[in-house]
Amino acid sequence: MPTPLIAGNWKMNGSRALVEEFAQAFRDADLSPGVEVALMVPFPYLEAAGRAFAGTPVALGAQTLSDQPAGAFTGEVSGEMLDDCGARLVLVGHSERRTLFGEDDAAVLARVKAALAVGLTPVLCLGETLEERDDGRTEAVVLGQLEAVFDALAPDERGRLVIAYEPVWAIGTGRTATPEQAQAVHAAIRERLGRYGDALAAGMQVLYGGSMKAANAAELLAQPDIDGGLVGGASLKVDEFLAICQSAG
């Protein structure tokens, strides 16, 4: 069974003070050693967070990366830069990157490969819109996004990813998929991963990312194919995020 992972995505929020607050809380926190924790902080706070999280169970993550290793790409950040700042994970294909910044499956694949090239763990985000769900296309959309990446990777590369299922209609809306709805999609993802190998499917961390909070975390995490959470708004509140992490233990 995969190790539970709770990853917080601060999006375009946070401060140095919040970094220090989280570092202090997790330095003293009573967490199960069988739970992994990560925080994806904005680029300006990566180095400060890397220093602050040293000696805590919190791994450092970033929210996206360029598909290029270096060059004249003003405003972009490369995987090598993230690695140099101490990042260990990076979100790729988050729904906001897909919808607001036009990243299609090809762009997502290029970023996954860029992350793998420098030893970062890509957290590949998959998810459907409300319209796609209402049209009965949830599995077609989610599994299509999965295959667009996994079909293009070598077997040894596939096992280095984490997957996050994030129904777009449940991000920042206060709506949450029921545990049964979330489990159904996670089970479909796990089944499709089996086409690439039974060991891969059994060992892949598949996170749920749709308005997870302390009040619903335990019920979601109790589902057999949900291995953790990609937490948005609740990851900006120390007590709330810590409670979610403790639910995973």
UniProtKB/TrEMBL annotation:
GO biological process: gluconeogenesis; glyceraldehyde-3-phosphate biosynthetic process; glycerol catabolic process; glycolytic process
Compartments (UniProt record): Cytoplasm
Keywords: Cytoplasm, Gluconeogenesis, Glycolysis, Isomerase
Highest taxon above the source species: Bacteria
Record-annotated active site: 94 (electrophile), 166 (proton acceptor)
Protein family: Belongs to the triosephosphate isomerase family.
The keyword Cytoplasm belongs to this UniProt entry's keyword annotation: yes
Protein name (record): Triosephosphate isomerase
Keyword Iron-sulfur: no
HAMAP family in UniProt: TIM_B
Pathway recorded for this protein: Carbohydrate metabolism; erythritol degradation; Carbohydrate biosynthesis; gluconeogenesis; Carbohydrate degradation; glycolysis; D-glyceraldehyde 3-phosphate from glycerone phosphate: step 1/1
